[in-house]
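**User:** You know discrete backbone vocabularies at least as well as I do. Would you mind producing a protein record, from residues through to fold? Write it directly below this note and I will take it from there.

**Assistant:**
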Amino acid sequence: MKRLILIVLLIATTGLLEVTSGSLISEYISSMDPKVDYNAIVKVTVGPSSDKIEVLKIGEYISFSIKGKVSRIHIIKKGDTYSIITEEPVNIGALLWAYRFSKDTTLISKNYYVVFEGYENINNVRTMRISFNPRHKGGIKRTVWIGIPTKIMIKLEDRDQNGNLIRAREIENLQLNPNPGKKKSIEALFEKGIKVPARDKLLSPQEVAKQLGIDLVIPASLPAGYELIGADIPQDETAQLVFTDGIGFISIYEIKIPWWARQNVQPEKKRYIEWENSGIHFLIVGDLPEDILLEIANSMRK
């Protein structure tokens, strides 16, 4: 009888842990796209450098505004379209890197231990703290602080296996339900800007290869937990393969080179991996250590 009770308790406890882990992931995913309108000043840090971005979410619009070298840069998203207002070159991907997320709950739960770490006040906002701890070698640890009850992600930190900061973002000032009149200003800016596809949905590698007229090289082996989730064409003559384990990302860029500039160059280990072969320039960047990225590169040369 005691044994039966123990088995029932174990089953109940296991179920509770699974539900708790799933609910934490749901809270995390909800915080990527909060329903409430807000205006915020966000400090974004990537490696040793940081910048401040003004973020305004109002209605169907979300606006990112940052001080450039010449003037302010505005990036406004509505549905599947970005509208850009700038007097200088801008790399959207670099600006919005800290806003890039996977919503694949299966990958997250398969590759990460999800832990509720308690409650904490961040810049006068009460938050719940959740950590995502990698199950595999080299994976990054992500910690997020989600506002209660707004479900806005107030703070995010990504750290490597040695505890070094990779990237972070933190809302330093938050205003909920901004003046509805701001929507007209954002609408006017959106109409004024240069329109580009938001590309929230990636293409298939086959589609990208067909559009660029090249044979894409797919890695023969990938780090544990990582999967190919799609491809993109970030600029002319450039293919991008995107891989994730649910939290971390790896991008492989394959760039077609004119015949007169071609040369064979061996993979070189830097903060990224770069080489040339058979008229294609390859570049691998990602959240994993350089040794693991180099293994990916070598698997593409066999």
